[in-house]
Amino acid sequence: MMGNNREFICLSYDLIGNGYFQKLTFVVLIYFSCFAINQVGASIHEYQNQSFFRRSNSFFFHGGSEGLYASKLHVDPDKKPSPEENHLNGKSFIRFKSITFRRPKESAEKKNEMQQKTGLVEAIIVEVKDREKIGGSYLHSAAICCTPDLSKEGSCNVGEVIIHQDPNYPYNPQRIQTFFEGKTEETTMVLQTVEINHTGMYYLYFMFCDPELMGTTISGRTVWRNPEGYLPGKMAPLMTYFGLMSLAYLGLGLVWFLWSVQYWKDIIQLQYHITAVIGLGMCEMALWYFEYANFNATGNRPMGITLWAVTFTAVKKTVSRLLLLVVSMGYGVVRPTLGGVIFKVLLLGLTYFVFSEALGLVENLGNIDDLTGKARLFLVLPVSLLDACFIIWIFSALSQTLEKLQIRRSMAKFALYRKFTNSLAISVLLSIAWLYFNAADPLSELWQRAWIIPAFWNLLAFVLLVVICSLWAPSNNPTRYAYSEETGDELEEEGISLTSSSVLLAGESANKQLERKERRASNADLFRLGEEVEEDKRE
């Protein structure tokens, strides 16, 4: 399981409190393997014969973690719910469905057939702020399970996980016990719904202390729900955000369309690329909105719409970065084509798309809390390195472009690119500052503001796109930033008045030269005529 490393790290926090082508092949395999999936569990966490892992003197399995808001409505035991309501609206809960534990046959055969309780597995629900209440840390012990010595002190029962109960909050952390009976190899957890009455980040662990149960596996699923739907608390605000961003892209697209229609005869190639980025952004935000809306309503993330959303995001990010790069190189402004460098640009873009797509699939086609581990780290590092390559190349190209424009004294284009450079520099500084103020949060204790992190990147990209649209907006004078082979192009708008006067002067000079030639020609004709008359007289 991809999240096992994360599970091990998170439990330690909770319980103690304190080759290029080979990579591409791996990513492609991840991508195409996803087509075999019809839908992916999200707030519905599936367990399929998965194993427990040893930690201290216990064995654990991480069942999930989500930010949950407190229920707005509580169960009325005297009221029979209607099929439509189904006791869901306004409620927040964790529901255990068909949870089955299976122990090894050798372990079952060692037990007495007549004995009722021959093995114990506990489900423990703990809010992250109460993680120190699990284990023996408050007893100055590294043990997670109760030992005979601790049991003598009356602080716990042998064979159970140590939980320090606060008299004011006796149900947090909460444990649910399930026993094996006799020599049975399987036991099923009673169907149970645990209502959430306090807002917080909750972790679910399945644990046992008996070493003879080593090799036990778990199957089944748990359903996690917030009062407004199945979207986890840290993702819920993003649904509204994506809806607003799709409207923002729609508004930008409408303004850009009216601009383009007004000056359709003067559209340059670069402006078509800007149109493509606006369209991709609009589709991306709309797809994410509908994906989140479906997730919120059903608790599942259908393969189709999620894959489309991830793909549009990867394509838009790739095209946006390529647009920034070719603009920085002066494409269409100081150079008509990219020449041989186009292959390097396309290779960088293709590589970025592949890794960005794979990272998006790993993040969005698994359980929502399963966002770390070796597979994700393997993909995050290449994407980060490729982003760094884009940034270095962009600013290097900008420096060369500004130098060329300054040498040619193309002051209008120079001013345009200087504004563009300043905008990029500000965006990079904001990104660095944002990373600094959003340090790692391994336990997701700041889950209520976690949605701001992806929202910031999307908003920053949108603002940068608006800046580019304003700088390269369609107009009736496209030559102010269009490439021209004539040297007069280097004079830009400053030379327009001079150009008209120079044309008049050139015209007058040409007329004078023509008159001189005509006079010379007429004089030559008269001279020849005089010679002919003299010859006739001699004869």
From TrEMBL:
Alphabetic keyword roster: Membrane, Signal, Transmembrane, Transmembrane helix
GO terms for cellular component: Golgi apparatus; membrane
Pfam families the UniProt entry points to: GOST_TM
Domain GOST seven transmembrane: start-end pairs: 237-478
Main localization category: membrane
Cell compartment(s), UniProt: Membrane
Listed InterPro entries: GOST_TM, GPR107/GPR108-like
Membrane topology: Multi-pass membrane protein
Domain of life per record: Eukaryota
Residues that span the membrane, as ranges: 20-44, 238-259, 271-290, 322-355, 375-399, 420-439, 451-473
The keyword Mitochondrion belongs to this UniProt entry's keyword annotation: no
Entry protein name: GOST seven transmembrane domain-containing protein
Organism: Gossypium barbadense (Sea Island cotton)
